[in-house]
């Protein structure tokens, strides 16, 4: 299974006590929303805020247990997605994988600053493109544009991510831009001839 690095951006709150972990597929600049319940969101937000606890949380116990038995954790995987539910795993330094809920995996990843990897299948099925303007408006996220992308030509449709996806689709079918537009040596023939 192929995995890609995703970036944790934030936990967003929506009406009716709905919470979402917002991850970004860096390579494609797409958003992977992972919906969690209010109690898990509250706990993760407390981790982020550095709120001390009187007693260890389950995530702390899990981290201590892994350190004692498996040499600690190496990374987090988001392995599968079906009908709105994700399955994650914590990968130990000795190569074992422990299946867990994504909210628990995110807590460990946050506390240990672990990389978060999502399977290509999950990203293909559950990630979405959201424009930078919509990210700012709806989620309060201000992402800086990749310096490499800022030098690219403007997109034909106004949606660079959609254009890139379309180009890949066409290439996978063996069609190039030159095939569609014709080359200078062989301009497209006029249909009236």
UniProtKB/TrEMBL annotation:
GO terms for molecular function: nuclease activity. Residues 1-130 form the BFN domain. It comes from the Bacteria. It holds the Pfam family BFN_dom. This is BFN domain-containing protein.
């Amino acid at each position: 299974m192929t995995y890609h690095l995703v970036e944790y951006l934030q936990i967003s709150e929506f009406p009716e006590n709905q919470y979402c972990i917002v991850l970004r597929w860096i390579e494609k600049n797409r958003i992977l929303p992972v919906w969690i319940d209010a109690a898990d969101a509250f706990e993760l937000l407390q981790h982020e805020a550095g709120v001390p606890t009187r007693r260890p949380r389950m995530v702390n116990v899990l981290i201590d247990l892994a350190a004692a038995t498996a040499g600690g954790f190496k990374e987090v995987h988001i392995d599968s997605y079906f009908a709105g539910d994700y399955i994650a795993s914590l990968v130990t330094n000795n190569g074992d994988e422990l299946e867990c809920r994504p909210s628990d995996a995110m807590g460990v990843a946050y506390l240990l600053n672990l990389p978060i990897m999502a399977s290509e299948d999950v990203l293909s099925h559950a990630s979405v493109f959201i424009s930078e303007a919509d990210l700012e408006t709806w989620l309060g996220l201000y992402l800086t544009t990749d310096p490499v992308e800022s030098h690219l030509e403007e997109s034909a449709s106004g949606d660079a991510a959609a254009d890139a996806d379309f180009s890949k689709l066409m290439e996978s079918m063996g069609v190039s831009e030159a095939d569609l537009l014709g080359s200078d040596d062989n301009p497209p023939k006029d249909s009236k001839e």
